[in-house]
Amino acid sequence: MNRAIRLFSFIVISLFVSTAAMAADVATLQPQQWQTIQEHVIEGDIPELRGMPTQVELLMPASIPEEADETVLGYLGATDSIAFLVFASLFGVIALFIIFIMVNGISRLDNGFSGKMIKRWSGLSISVHWLGAIACILLMLTGLVLAGGRHYFEPSMNASSWTSLVGLSSSLHELMAFPFILGYILMILMWAPKQIPASYDLKWFAVLGGYLNTGKKHHPDAGFANAGEKLWFWVFALFGGLMVISGLTMMFPETFVVTKNTANLMLVMHIASTIIISAFSVVHIFMATVMSEGGMSNMTSGYCDENWAKQHHNLWFNELK
């Protein structure tokens, strides 16, 4: 547990340090210097007195702002591609999973439900999970509007409705960032010790966890977390962390003293992390609610059926005996 906490702290501190290191000097104009003025009297209905410096000097910044990174601007300029990828990471993966379930079917319990329930998650773990999960879902939905709504929503909406939707999405997106960050930190600290990769995880991936309903049934070894859950956890830990760092940097640019290039880079990082997290989230939700018979009770009651534990997490079940 202490090793996991130290590792997580090192990653977070490194991300903050690297973000601050990217900040450049802010351009500051040199002080105005008073110069001798040559006066000219202009005759007319209303006499005027005009003047020009005898030696005009061009004021330059004490430090020259950095030039725009054309590569980063090129990525951000491809708004249609960004919108497509963001929407595909959610709706495209949903469509693929529906097709997979229609062809393959779900993973049912070989011996049905035993009726004997086993404690799997504490009340605190369930609360932390839903704190982060609800915030994450709202962030994804509002992110859809902000990243691709102009291409997919605005054409079919009137101006006032579109403006209201964008305003609501922007405010809710920023508001949900804070419960997401809290849930993210707590989940990483609380669950990391149970997500350490093991040698038998490779065998789990070799048979795709035994979820394929073709030929002989396979139920590979798995501890408290199977290999798929571990992969999701570490993907969430890495890219969720990048989302947090990039999001906070864009929300509080003055605090981090970022330049435009740094802000643009953070936006690219945020979008890329969003696409990856959204795709994995869809898989995670489908696996918990549809694909695995009896799996949903884990995060609603904190208990799982004994036969479910034997079939999907046999090594953990054996440790309980």
From TrEMBL:
Q: Which GO terms describe its molecular function?
A: electron transfer activity; formate dehydrogenase (NAD+) activity; formate dehydrogenase (quinone) activity; metal ion binding
Primary location recorded for the protein, binned into one broad class: membrane
Q: What are the boundaries of the signal sequence?
A: 1-23
Q: Indicate whether Ubl conjugation appears among the record's keywords.
A: no
Cofactor(s) required, per the database record:
heme
Q: Where is the Cytochrome b561 bacterial/Ni-hydrogenase domain?
A: 120-302
Tell me the keywords, alphabetical order: Cell membrane, Electron transport, Heme, Iron, Membrane, Metal-binding, Signal, Transmembrane, Transmembrane helix, Transport
Q: Provide an example Pfam family for this protein.
A: Ni_hydr_CYTB
| GO cellular component entries | formate dehydrogenase complex; plasma membrane
Query: What membrane topology is annotated for this entry?
Result: Multi-pass membrane protein
Which InterPro entries is this protein grouped with?
Cyt_b561_bac/Ni-Hgenase, Di-haem_cyt_TM, FDH_cytochrome_b556_subunit, Formate_DH_gsu
Q: Which BP terms does GO give this entry?
A: anaerobic respiration; formate oxidation; respiratory electron transport chain
Q: Where can this protein be found?
A: Cell membrane
Task: Give the domain of life.
Answer: Bacteria
The transmembrane residues are: 82-107, 128-152, 172-192, 231-253, 265-290
Which family does the similarity line name?
A: Belongs to the formate dehydrogenase gamma subunit family.
Q: What is this protein called?
A: Formate dehydrogenase subunit gamma
Q: Which organism is it from?
A: Shewanella canadensis
